[in-house]
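call fold(seq) -> tokens
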Amino acid sequence: MSIEELRYPVGRFQPLAVYSSDATAANVNILAAFPKRLATVAAGLTPAQLDTPYREGGWSVRQTIHHVADSHLHAYIRTKWLLTEDTPTIKAYLEKKWAETSENKADVQLSLTLIAAHHAKWVALLSTVGPADFARRFYHPDNQNYVRLDSLVAAYAWHGEHHAMHIQRLKERMGW
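ret:
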């Protein structure tokens, strides 16, 4: 398996300029189903397996799960900013350093529970948003670009599956 396939098991995210209402609804449904998807792929892993990197030089399964919780919380907060402010500038974060903070050694159930709760709240919010709101944008200072809410939703639908597949493919390769 190539390093590209190990790094991007579902391919790289390719954002569209605009998403249809149907595509956005499908992405919201992916976000709704994601907590169960991640919990299922992580179920039954031993502490040693959780501490195994999904690829050489990559994060451990444990770090990956905790990263998803952090990252998707950022997405939820960015959604709230988008809906309550005019073209807000978001605060970026150093995800690699966040993955190394001490709580990321904790039981993954901590983050799986958090993901389930905040995804339920995020999906409840997104389910009430109209087409004009999905066109609202924020400014990302690190990337120096504007991001629409429909694109943010698509990115995080992809992001969840991206990391779930890291874990699933590792399990397949290791015969777990």
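Strands lie at 137-140, 145-148.
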